[in-house]
Amino acid sequence: MFPDSLTFSIADWVNRFVDQLVTRYGDALRQVSDSLLWALVGLEGLLRATPWWVLLLVVGALAWHATGRVRSAVLIAGLLFLVGAVGLWDKLMQTLALMLVATALSVLLGVPLGVLAARWPRLRLVLMPVLDVMQTLPSFVYLIPVLMLFGLGKVPAIFATVVYAIAPVVRLTDLGIRQVDKEVMEAVNAFGATPWQQLFGVQLPLALPSIMAGINQTTMMALSMVVIASMIGARGLGEDVLTGIQTLNVGRGLEAGLAIVALAVAIDRITQAYGQPRRRGK
């Protein structure tokens, strides 16, 4: 038995910190929560109000533009059609809206953090261990403070997803910018380019494949959170998977699980294609 004299706990400290956070910044957090909820509900309403065939055409056109292949576009649109054919179209739209908002927030925060980490090595030394913790910490652990701050519903699901999914886009943005050829940067400096011109005119375009790979991984990780998000009030395909587990309804859980796979395949193929050289063909 481990001696009691050598044990300690951080639980009380963490609880006090969260309580102070709620007390001091409760109003600001509520405004952030309301803004995110407005964006999510609006996007979800738009997706659900749009005719299914219009969305399939949009997805197919996007897939064709990304891959340059008609067969890929038809396959991706066909996978989503099958999701609707089994009666899960509304749940698919709910999941897609949650994932898009969480991914957009991850990218808006992650890309600037990656740029800053590439420019300041000291920040990278601090940031990378934090990202390691965010990726390895069990999701249920950071759900607890998120629930205390925002309660049950869609907003805590967004924040939990962002915490889990933001790491790849930060890491790969940092890596992509640091891997830009030094000779190219020396030539740019010789022409007198400002730091902003260097960043937006040279570094970000050359690092785009790496950044797109990070966005792809962030999107996949966000999608992997849909089942956990359903446990705290976010609806969608994850809710059906969870219900299938709780009621031992294997068929319902399998249908929802395959729908998540179909959405993952569609998003993965499109985002991967945008990070690679375009190939045109049939």
Question: How would you describe the overall organization of this protein?
Answer:
This protein is about 85% helix and about 0% strand. The longest helix is centred in the N-terminal third of the chain and has 39 residues, at about 10-50. The chain has about 280 residues and is mostly helical. The protein contains 13 helices and no strands. The chain has helices spanning about 10-50, 50-65, 70-85, 90-120, 120-135, 140-150, 155-165, 165-180, 180-190, 195-225, 225-230, 235-245, 250-275. It is globular, with a radius of gyration of 22 Å. The protein has one domain: MetI-like fold, CATH 1.10.3720. Belongs to the binding-protein-dependent transport system permease family. This is Proline/glycine betaine ABC transporter permease. It is found in: Cell membrane. It comes from Pseudomonas typographi. It is a multi-pass membrane protein.
CATH class placement? Mainly Alpha
CATH topology: MetI-like fold
Main beta sheet strand tally, sense and closure? none
Shape: globular
> Looking at this structure, what is the CATH superfamily?
MetI-like
Mean pLDDT: 85
The number of distinct β-strands equals 0
End-to-end gap? 68 Å
**How much of the residues is beta strand, in percent?**
under 5%
Query: Helical content, roughly?
Result: over 70%
Question: H/E order of the elements?
Answer: HHHHHHHHHHHHH
What is the C-alpha radius of gyration, as a whole number of Å? 22 Å
CATH hierarchy: architecture: Orthogonal Bundle
Specify the number of helices.
13
Secondary structure class reads: mainly alpha
